TrEMBL record:
Organism superkingdom: Bacteria
One Pfam family of this chain: DUF3098
Keywords recorded for this protein, A-Z: Membrane, Transmembrane, Transmembrane helix
Protein's name in the database: DUF3098 domain-containing protein
Lineage: Bacteria, Pseudomonadati, Bacteroidota, Sphingobacteriia, Sphingobacteriales
Regions crossing the membrane: 24-43, 55-73
Amino acid sequence: MAEKKTGPVVKDVKSELVFTKQNYQLLLISIAIVAVGFILMMGTTGDIYDFRRTLLAPIVVLAGFAFGIYAILKK
């Protein structure tokens, strides 16, 4: 008797994104926060050692990066 040869089994592979819609929205928010921080860092006054440029803007930028990490790790 002849043996039946079967081809490779093809499974239905569902194409699934790594991140959800909420992750992408949170990432966009974090990018906006970082952009606001850099805009604050530019400033309009001539004083280089202003509170906004030296303390507030870097804190806002770091908060935006931290929020971006949270957005990536959120499951």
